[in-house]
Amino acid sequence: MPSEAPRHAVVTGSSSGIGLAVAQRLLDQGWRVTGLDLAPAVVAHPGFRAQPVDLSDGAAAEAAAGGLGPVQALVHAAGVLRVGRLGASSAADAQLMWQLHVAAASALAGVLVPAMAQAGQGRVVLIGSRVAQGKAGRGQYAASKAALISLARSWAAEFVAQGVTVNVVSPAATATPMLADPSRAASSPVLPPIGRLIQPAEVAALVAFLLGPEAAAITGQDIPICGGSSLPL
Q1: Over 90: is that where the pLDDT of 29 sits?
Q2: 146 CB burial (10 A radius; 0-12, 13-18, 19+)
Q3: Which of 141, 184, 204, 219 is labelled catalytic?
Q4: Among 128, 133, 85, which Cα is nearest to 229's?
């Protein structure tokens, strides 16, 4: 990564939850951060620039990426959860999750990653979910998060020789505003075995490491932050 000028990271969903924690962590580490979010910005820092964009609109996401200039890292943290069992879930909800999680990642990466490869360096981290392994009532959400893993592995293979790494970080239930979404009122989060929710700052710490030079040999991986949820208890 270049040291002459602040590194530039693009963080989606930077107005709340994991995206906000990532943006704040990177700013503390001296990065310059552009936040892509439809919600109003909450970060006040000279190194932060907010760019309002509806990431569920693929054309808008691609256009936003095209005007960002040189970028060394992309963190796609924007997300939404809609619940519903098979036969009872909404097609509109399924489309929204796919557009925001998968199509937006593709639109942004399609512009930013080739430029990173041309520069010979770059980092991409997609925020996935433990639910990608499947969970009752979460079929469409799980499918969109599982797709991120396949995308990351494919992109990692395409650009591994050009200095670009692509990884997924998959938290268990995390203390974000998503947990208070009225649409999931009848579906409470399950606490991990550690007995508490994962904290956004814990996710941000791992993301920041993956964006750094020490993580240059880590690519194409789905890394859980599960609080013991994956253990055979």
Answers
A1: yes
A2: buried
A3: 141
A4: 133
